[in-house]
Specification:
The protein is an alpha+beta fold and 287 residues long. The protein is built from 10 helices and 14 strands. The protein folds into 2 domains: 199 residues, no CATH class; 62 residues, no CATH class.
Length: 287
């Protein structure tokens, strides 16, 4: 989905050695679906209805799922009889959708963003209870390194909590059916206003982002001054440096330098609404 993309998107981070090293190396972490805090995330319950279960459509579905298989020979041995999809295939992939969902899990990784930077719950859940930080990315610039254009997917939050019902033709003919399954969450999560970037090589992986897309950074309301100092010291492009793993060494090894092109903000409590709001953060440079 590319329409109505917000000009900026935000990625909340805890403050730890992993997030700091990733910032230094200009990397984003792509999670495995099973590691998300919502057990339905990227694994929504759905069922394939009995409509359009003709031999022709079942054969086409077999060919589609076979292409996703890592071992096609073993897949054929298990699910072909006399050159045709057998009843076991129907039981495993039509009556039950668990194998399809497992294949999706094996291939998909996701990194997540929000449209909002001022939401208390986002800071609480993903910004280490306001002690972490948040990266701002300019969506007019390719976010991932080496790409000419970033493909962002908007998460939707339908009001109904019913299982999604698909028929075989939906899977065969609708190019966005996988997108729908990977970007549909319960309405209880609507406050997140979430956008995603996916990879098709599985999760638990790091990929470089484009440094020019990083347009801002926000310090949590409860973030310590010592932690802010570390962030300020590693914000310049240090991608060619060897990043030590402990924060004390990070703070000691990287001299304070002026940050070009990246706006820095602190967060403060909003006196009129239950929100936190940014304010320009002043740097005290050493001479």
């Amino acid at each position: 989905m590319t329409e109505s993309i917000p000009p900026k998107i935000y990625k909340f981070q805890p403050f730890n050695q992993y997030s700091i090293v990733n910032l230094i190396r200009r990397q984003l972490y792509f999670s495995k679906p099973e590691d998300f805090n919502d057990p339905y995330d990227c694994d929504p319950p759905f069922e394939i209805t009995k409509a359009h279960r003709t031999p022709k459509n079942i054969a086409a579905l077999y060919a589609r799922i076979r292409n996703w298989s890592a071992d096609r020979s073993a897949f054929d041995t298990t699910y072909l009889s006399n050159g045709k999809p057998n009843r076991r295939f129907e039981r495993d992939y039509i009556d039950s959708t668990i194998p399809i969902r497992k294949q999706i899990h094996a291939k998909v990784g996701a990194t997540c963003f929000s449209e909002k930077v001022d939401d208390i719950l986002l800071w609480s859940h993903y910004g280490d209870k306001h002690k972490g930080f948040c990266l701002e990315f300019d969506t007019q610039v390719p976010i991932m390194k080496g790409q000419q254009k970033t493909k962002l997917y908007k998460v939707t939050y339908p009001k109904s909590n019913s299982y999604r019902r698909l028929n075989i033709l939906d899977i065969l003919n609708k190019p966005d059916v996988l997108e729908v399954l990977l970007t549909t969450k319960s309405s209880q999560w609507h406050y997140e206003k979430e956008w995603r970037i996916f990879c098709d090589t599985g999760g638990d992986k790091l990929f470089h982002f484009n440094p020019k897309a990083l347009s801002g950074i926000y310090f949590g309301y409860k973030m310590s001054q010592e932690d802010k100092d570390v962030i300020i010291e590693v914000l310049p492009d240090n991608s060619k440096r060897n990043a030590p793993s402990d924060l004390a060494t990070l703070a000691k090894n990287y001299p304070n330098t002026i940050i070009k092109g990246i706006h820095i903000y602190g967060m403060q409590l909003n006196k009129e609404k239950f929100l936190v709001k940014p304010f320009p953060f002043r740097l005290n440079y050493r001479t």
